[in-house]
């Protein structure tokens, strides 16, 4: 298989010395078991991922996010952890993991891992000891009650499978608390030994050289009667203490909060300048609005969310994404909006999971090249650090008939060989089958084919990532919404001390002409950032008139008139 090789990287100072690196980074979520198999057992592993680092460097990825690779019964994709400091043998060894970090760092690529603090697997030795010895050291490591009557105001998250947040344990003769699956008992963070255990786990992985930890399901660490058991002050106190430890012992390592909450509550997970918490918080509400906007052909919903963005403490950054390994959550939209999203994007029940949609980006957007490019152009220009999902760069499809969310977790499609370049094992032995449906068949949709075709989505995305990297304003610049004469057009500027960029998007499936109002910018010139071609100048009335094709966009660099015509 022919794969692109990275250009010789420029010498870089040690990655750990760079502060606020996350604000201009492009992240890439890679499912280890589905990416590349080095030993022909049908399961992706660390050595397989190492062999693809050159491709990721070539693409322009700054940081890899690797979901859990710890020992696990694998009842929830590895998020049911049975050993926090171990590595599941099917993925390799500790030495393999360390070699991955070393090779990635040599290419200027950082590594972020998942840290699942809220719960363990029911097979974790801590839980087994807790249920068997209630008076022992681990007896109070979990939340136990004689009756399932506490915390009644807490919602059930996995409504498709769970009917209660309490499950009875026959061995201990009590009920244990769990916010997710019943095989994932919640840890008792009221116990100081639990808190110290989790700090030690973080120390362990940071000492091995990881560049960040993603705090999974972080709003649910503590419980309190009379509340919804989310976002409690004790949770923020723990995160603040953890941040202080990391800053003191591992400077440059970042914390990422997965808090599926409204922006006014998520912002608390950044902390303050005096008492910082997480460096990045995922911006969940923007995601469904982007998809709704392309269907309704109006920018109103997106503008409303963007206008509500609260100011962030210094160094804070939103994490933006289109898709990931979970469902496209619809928890923070209205009932009407949810029904509409289901009708547009998930008309079959098999396309839905919990309160969301289990489909990949290309499937959601009907494999429309224009809409996929438009979505990525939005992702890469909106305030925040973008998180890409493996396979979306080649428009991989999904398999809605697989269990739970496995339909969006199928093997990476590298080439047209029998095992798609993922593995030399018999494809019948793969944990998840290859995509072979007509629209997304791996023999037609794969990296090798896309790399060799200059006009492919893959090559377009690589070029777009390079443009973004050349202009730090996309990561750190202030965003200002631009008033337009047409609601089908979304426009905003990103501005810092060096650059001003105008981003304009036609969300409609028909061409549109639009007037943009840019107060105080009369006479400013605009230049296309892809080809360097001059575009219209802002007129004396601070107006700019543009025409956009269906589902197209412009990234325009704006130049003050006094700077001269030097483009």
TrEMBL record:
Its EC number is 5.4.99.16. Keywords: Calcium, Isomerase, Metal-binding. Gene3D superfamilies: Glycosidases, Golgi alpha-mannosidase II, Oligo-1,6-glucosidase, Domain 2. It holds the Pfam family Malt_amylase_C. One of its GO terms (biological process) is carbohydrate metabolic process. The keyword Calcium applies. Residues 29-429 form the Glycosyl hydrolase family 13 catalytic domain. One of its GO terms (molecular function) is maltose alpha-D-glucosyltransferase activity. It comes from the Bacteria. Coiled coil: none annotated. It catalyses: D-maltose = alpha,alpha-trehalose. Belongs to the glycosyl hydrolase 13 family. TreS subfamily. NCBIfam families: treS_nterm. This is maltose alpha-D-glucosyltransferase. The lineage of its organism: Bacteria, Bacillati, Actinomycetota, Actinomycetes, Actinomycetales.
